[in-house]
Amino acid sequence: MIPYIERTRNWYLALGYANPYRWAHFDEVPFTPLRRPLADCTVALVTTAAPYQPGKGPQGPGAPYNAAAKFFEPYSGDTSVDHDLRISHVAVDRRHANLEDSNCWFPLPLLRERVKLARRFHGAPTNRSQRHTLEVDAPLIVQRCQEDGADAAVLVPNCPVCHQTVSLIARELERAGIATVIVGAAKDIVEHVGVPRFLFSDFPLGNACGKPFDRESQAQTLDLALRLLQEATPPRTTWQSPQRWSGSDEWKLDYCNPERATPAELAAARAEFDAAKAVASTIPRNLR
User: How far does CA 75 lie from the centroid of its chain?
Assistant: First the structure.
């Protein structure tokens, strides 16, 4: 397991930012048991992936961090059709994750085969402001899930802050009587926030829903998440996928690790981050 809280703290200190981010944490965790068999439930899907926006720069495989492609308000989409959602806007593991197969981060087609889906899925903005997530974004997503008659929700984050975002939203969905399960790769962040159910995939950020172009891996991951949704009894229930990303765990040493970065790489990362902040500064403050 990669210690993302520690890694990101050390990384941003190495880039020259003096105030480490304070992650959300709660002792109390709301919990809503699934009230009927899963086959009789309506299931919502919450994602942090962004719709592809032509004209907003590179957003596909190999694309750098692209703040221009980020979204700042919750959006919803029709679950009866497929969508082109990408994750070039977030701090996923670009060195080791595969960004070609969207089923690794947006399991809509496979979920459509397994459950009765709510009529809409929902996009949750990756917002560093915990207050904005709790007071603005989460209530909107809860309202939309209620409008669609959702009994349960599957939430899939990608970057470190995404994991906090969906954890906060899952907590509010549970308070509203909607059972949730998060499928993610940043175990320490999700458990630090405190959620009812979490399926941990020890995979690179961005590939939590299975190995790329490996339908069996993706099906096993989703089926395990749906089992967890049904079988968990206490809150803070974490299951770990038995799958391994590769024969070696060497890949875990690279993500946001200043000890494995050259001064030039650190300088480039700082410049990239500053550029992203400059783009974000053009967005109205009430949307950030």
Answer: 15
Let me know: does 173 contact 189? Beta carbons within 8 Å: no
- Give the span between the Cα atoms of 250 and 47, in whole angstroms: 28
55-64: b or e for each residue (b if 16 or more CB lie within 10 Å)? Answer: eeeebeeebe
Q: What are phi and psi of 78, to 5 degrees?
A: -70, 125
| pTM (two decimals) | 0.92
Render pLDDT for 13-67 as a digit per residue (tens, 0 to 9): 988 888 888 999 999 999 999 989 999 999 999 999 999 888 777 667 767 676 7
SS3 content of the chain, % helix, strand, coil (to 5): 40, 15, 45
Q: How many CA atoms lie within 13 A of 53 on its CB side?
A: 15
Instruction: Collect all residues with Cβ–Cβ distance below 8 Å to 209 and sequence separation of at least 6.
Output: 103, 104, 105, 106, 107, 156, 183, 201, 218, 221, 222
**Do residues 97 and 206 lie in contact, with contact meaning Cβ atoms separated by under 8 Å?**
yes
Euclidean distance between CA atoms 121 and 13, whole angstroms: 37
Residue 173's Cβ-side half-sphere holds a number of Cα atoms within 13 Å equal to 36
DSSP 251: G
Burial call 162-198: b when 16+ CB within 10 Å, e when fewer: bbbbbbbbbbbbbebebbbbbbbbbbbbbbbbbbbbb
